[in-house]
Amino acid sequence: MKRDINTNSIKLELLYVHDESLRRKGITGYYIDKLKRLAIDVGVECIYVVANVSVDNFSKDKKGNALSQNDLEEYYKRKSSPEMPIIIMDK
User: Fold this and answer.
1) Is the pLDDT assigned to residue 91 strictly greater than 80?
2) pLDDT for 63-86, tens place per residue?
3) Which strand ranges, in their side-by-side order, compose the sheet holding 46-50?
4) How far is it between the farthest Cα atoms of the chain?
């Protein structure tokens, strides 16, 4: 589903933990929560996220402890809240 990004939103294109030993330790969640708080404080309506596990920039990185595409999308859906919706965009 294509969505037009409104002008009162944030678009998160990439949030990535390079070191596979540090994945699944809450680092991404920490930054998502910070972004949500900032967005609420400045009156943003929603956060659009490009959830793509196949980003070319990091295609040569090790994938240990990495989420699958489905798991990544579900992660962002769980992080969404009525106060700050997170909307997954098409890749």
Assistant:
1) no
2) 677 788 899 999 999 999 999 999
3) 9-12, 46-50, 86-89
4) 38
